[in-house]
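Suppose a colleague, Dr. K., hands you the sequence of a protein chain of 105 amino acids and asks what its three-dimensional shape might be. Before reaching for any lab equipment, you can write down a predicted structure in token form. Begin with the sequence itself:
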Amino acid sequence: MRTYIGRHEARNAVEFEELALGFEDLPHGIDRDLFRGPLQLESPQERAAREDVAREVLADLAAQGEAGDEVAAWDALYADALTRTTPLLRTAARAARTAGTEEAA
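The predicted structure, expressed as tokens, is then:
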């Protein structure tokens, strides 16, 4: 028996999970890195610019949602939730800096 997700055949459980949950391709629409931050380190200027754009996009999505666009309203909720997440590299970098200062003390 063969299992297909869209046009792709899942040959094992891992492939099925990737295809079913969308790990292979990002969905069209929301740019996750814009709202949560990139997975690589960014300069303070890059972060400030990204956060400014994210606030503007979030405000536009919220306004469209209030005007009756249900998809934009859901996108605004999703984007807002992404702003509260912390990429793993940023957390790891912060933990490494903290560990380094504790060892020096």
